[in-house]
Design a protein that fits this description.
By secondary structure, the protein is an alpha/beta fold. It is about 30% helix and about 35% strand. The chain contains seven helices and eleven strands. It has a seven-stranded mixed sheet, with helices on both faces. Helix 1 packs across helix 5 (about 110-120) and helix 3 packs parallel to helix 4 (about 90-100). The relative contact order is 0.14.
Length: about 230
């Protein structure tokens, strides 16, 4: 799909604005939804178990900025196969793609994938990008990835076991899952779960500034124990 057609489709449904994400080695342009709170009722969905799925994808979260900063400072990702789960606007995956990785952007929401595709086009990294609609309770990937990226995905305990299973199955044996988390009180439980299943975590602290509001984020680099 061409960039002008994508922009038209998105603009027909959402008011849009462009956000410039300033990193140490580059800037990236990300098109986002203006005032996503106004779409909460329209985009919220009830799950089969009665739980309410809120449109978190429509918000630009500080954790995605912190993860992008971490990736921007890493060595080249050339020849790496990268997966971003819950990609939203695609911030982290775009930085990984610019860094040389072949990136699969995955999200449950079709509109999130349209934004990620549009943002990949405007940052000129679409040739190394693919997009797949996915429920992490039933992932549809084949093979393994040397890097799995995620930001703000462990906010609900019911997601922990599906995400753990995805990492166990699809992270390369010598790969790294890089997870950004805004230090929620319950998030430690997820990383304890990882530890019980043979993973170790290295932590990096970042301060992400979004709309002049600083947030403290921890980026966890998760690997299998030797």
């Amino acid at each position: 799909m061409r960039i002008n057609e994508l922009q038209r489709r998105l603009a027909e449904r959402y008011p849009l604005r462009q956000e410039i994400i300033r990193l140490a080695n580059r800037n990236i342009a990300i098109t986002v939804v203006v005032d996503p709170d106004q779409f909460l009722d329209e985009l919220s969905k009830e799950e089969h178990d009665g739980a309410l799925r809120l449109p978190y994808w429509a918000f630009l979260w500080p954790s995605s900025i912190a993860l992008a900063r971490h990736l921007d400072q890493m060595d080249s990702l050339k020849s790496h196969r990268v997966l971003e789960i819950g990609c939203g606007f695609g911030v982290s995956g775009i930085v990984a793609s610019i860094g040389g990785g072949s990136v699969m952007f995955a999200d449950y929401e079709k509109d999130a994938l349209l934004f990620a595709q549009y943002n990949s086009l405007q940052n000129r990294c679409i040739k190394r990008s693919s997009f797949v609609q996915m429920d992490w309770n039933a992932p549809c990937f084949k093979g393994r990835f040397t890097r799995i990226l995620a930001s703000d995905v462990v906010y609900e305990e019911r997601n922990w076991n599906p995400i753990l299973a995805l990492i166990q199955r699809h992270l390369a044996l010598d790969g790294t899952a890089i997870i950004a988390e805004p230090n929620r009180a319950n998030a430690d439980g997820f990383f304890d779960l990882l530890a019980r299943h043979g993973f170790t975590s290295e932590e990096f602290g970042y301060t992400a500034l979004l709309e002049e509001d600083p947030s403290t984020i921890t980026v966890y680099c998760v690997r299998r124990e030797d």
